[in-house]
Design brief:
heterodimer, A: alpha/beta, Aconitase, domain 4, four-stranded parallel beta sheet, three-stranded antiparallel beta sheet, about 20% strand, B: 13 helices, binds iron/sulfur cluster
């Protein structure tokens, strides 16, 4: 498990997935081809299932495009940890079944090289040896996340 | 304690009194999608094979983002949408050429006071100009809404923004909203609602309110909303359409209050690569531009085009600049034609784009080369937004865009 750390605020959806591909890349494998292209060109070749992304505040601001959350879920990112998230991105992550952890303290505490692990059920994020509790999602959102996203949740006749 | 607009709208839809922080499930009045409908159709069909949308009359689809199609892939996407619309009996369908969704919905009187509109586009917040609770969602959620007709909202806290005074000559609503964004920051209203109050509202017309509400998302706002007043009634031509309007109580609880004096607002630009990187045009070092883009859902209305033309005063676009002009919708385009505005732009050397999003999202019709600089009247200047990550986008009012088109450097419209 590796941490992909981006020491900046306002990482917007154009950096996560450039808008010019919005209508040419439809499937998850196509989306992954351009994931984080303008932020970290190495990301696609280095990311592994279970990896964690760490960044500053207002992560995912900008467009309502869901390619970033869909792509991150598809490559197996376990969680995105940030100081804060933009609203539509946050919503979209629940819809895709991607775990987000908002913890400004943990991001401040982190130094590149630190081990990071997350236990969503217990609501604990661990950076090096330090534990950062995070509040659980409201029950409704948690059931969508646990179903693996909104459409699976609907298929399971929850709607 | 009184209630905010957001509490009242969500409370009415949920059938109970609600407090900020509470999660409510509601059935929105309208669900907007655009070119991305083709991807949403894929999700819909894989979730409920052979299924029907729950409320065909609550769905509105506008093809506007890459129109006319730039590639055969876009064209196939559009074709898929046309087929789906027929099969599902979706009447509120606006094909290529009608215009940008955020202009078309108000024009068609689909964004109504007190109603709830969600759209798979972040600038769905534009309809706050009409007292609509409108906000962006992703494609997956739009598919879910086609299937179930309902979704959840967290009742937001509300920021009150008070506007006093009048905008001066050469200064526009765009300068005002950019100044507000600079003060609040790009996440200053994240998860929150914004309500506009104050004595200036009587002087802010529909096109100006739309420019302001459109950019609420650039501060992270869930909604950015105006009251339904005489100006709203005049636009909708009907008291009946305004009957569900709501507004906050005088003793509602606001989490923050900000005051702006419109007399003090000056022409500003947002510098690359964030919208809150704002500075007065007069303080900008000499900045040459390669392209000026006048249009988009932020500033593509006939009033915007007209104000720009007034600044140009018959002067030609300087040879070092390409000027692109696009009306936000067919109706706005017709108005501009009737008023002779389009002819003047053509004579001045501008390139006229069809109604639609054009180069705003970097897909076609005026993308930039590496190192190029564009002054745009759009709402976003993120790196790569106009198709090239090594290009630079500045955002301004139509007036500043016009002054820049005739001089070749970013210019205060009061100076030409
Ligand atoms: S004009 Fe630009 S900002 Fe507006 S809807 Fe189209 S792409 Fe989005």
């Amino acid at each position: 498990m590796a941490v992909h750390y981006y020491d900046q605020n306002d990482i917007n959806t154009d950096l996560l997935f450039p808008g010019k591909y919005t209508y040419t890349c439809g499937t998850a494998p196509e989306i992954v081809e351009h994931l984080l292209e303008d932020l970290d060109p190495e990301f696609r070749s280095t990311v592994k299932p279970g990896d964690i992304i760490m960044a500053g505040s207002n992560f995912g601001c900008g467009s309502s495009r869901e390619q970033p959350t869909l792509g991150l879920k598809y490559v197996g990112v376990q969680a995105v940890v940030a100081k804060s998230f933009a609203r539509i991105f946050y919503r979209s992550s629940i819809n895709q079944g991607l775990l987000l952890v908002q913890s400004p303290e943990a991001v401040e505490f982190y130094t590149p090289g630190d081990e990071v692990s997350v236990d969503p059920a217990a609501g604990i994020l661990k950076v090096a040896e330090r534990e950062f509790p995070f509040p659980p999602l409201p029950a409704e959102m948690l059931s969508i996340l646990e179903a693996g996203g909104l459409l699976n949740w609907i298929k399971g006749n929850n709607a | 304690m009184g209630q905010t607009f957001a509490q009242k709208v969500l409370g009415r839809a949920a059938g109970k009194a609600v407090e900020p922080g509470e999660i409510v499930f509601v059935e929105p009045d309208l669900v907007l999608t655009h070119d991305n409908s083709s991807a949403i159709i894929g999700k819909f069909e894989s979730t409920v094979p052979g299924g029907k949308v729950k409320y065909p009359d609550r769905i509105v689809i506008v093809l506007d983002h890459v129109t006319p199609a730039a590639t055969s892939k876009n064209a196939a996407g559009h074709a898929k949408v046309r087929k789906f619309v027929k099969e599902q009996g979706i009447g509120k369908f606006f094909d290529v050429g009608c215009g940008i969704c955020h202009q078309v919905l108000p024009e068609q009187h689909l964004a109504l006071p007190g109603s709830i509109v969600v759209g798979s586009d972040s600038h769905t917040c534009t309809y706050g100009a009409f007292n609509t609770f409108s906000t962006g969602i992703d494609r997956t959620e739009a598919a879910g809404l086609w299937i179930t007709g309902r979704t959840w909202f967290k009742v937001p806290e509300t920021i009150e923004i008070n506007l006093e005074g009048y905008l001066q000559k050469g200064v526009s609503a765009k300068d005002l909203i950019l100044t507000i964004i600079e003060k609040l920051g790009s996440d200053g209203a994240n998860y929150k609602a914004i309500e506009f109050h104050g004595s200036s509202l009587g002087s802010l017309l529909v096109h100006e309110r739309m420019t302001i509400a459109n950019m609420g998302i650039e501060m992270g706002a869930k909604i950015a909303v105006f009251p339904a007043d005489r100006i709203t009634h005049n636009f909708l031509f009907s008291d009946d359409l305004c009957k569900d309007a709501l507004w906050s109580d005088s003793d509602a609880d606001f989490c923050e209050i900000h005051n702006f004096n419109l007399n003090e607002i000056v022409p500003v630009v947002a510098r690359p690569h964030t919208v809150d990187n704002v500075c007065p045009v007069s303080e900008l070092p000499e900045t040459k531009v390669d392209q000026v883009y006048l249009g988009t859902c932020t500033n593509g209305r006939v009033e915007d085009l007209k104000s720009a033309l007034e600044i140009m005063k018959g002067r030609k676009v300087v040879s070092s600049v390409r000027m692109l002009v696009g009306a936000a919708s067919r109706d706005e385009f017709v108005k501009a034609l009737q008023q002779g505005i389009i002819k003047e732009f053509v004579k001045a050397g501008a390139v006229i784009l069809p109604p639609g999003c054009g180069p705003c999202l970097g897909a076609h019709q005026g993308v930039l080369a590496p190192g190029e600089v564009c002054l745009s009247t759009a709402n976003r200047n993120f790196k790569g937004r106009m198709g090239e990550k090594d290009a630079f986008i500045y955002l301004s009012s139509p007036e500043t865009a016009a002054a820049t088109a005739i001089t070749g450097v970013i210019t205060d419209p009061r100076e030409v």
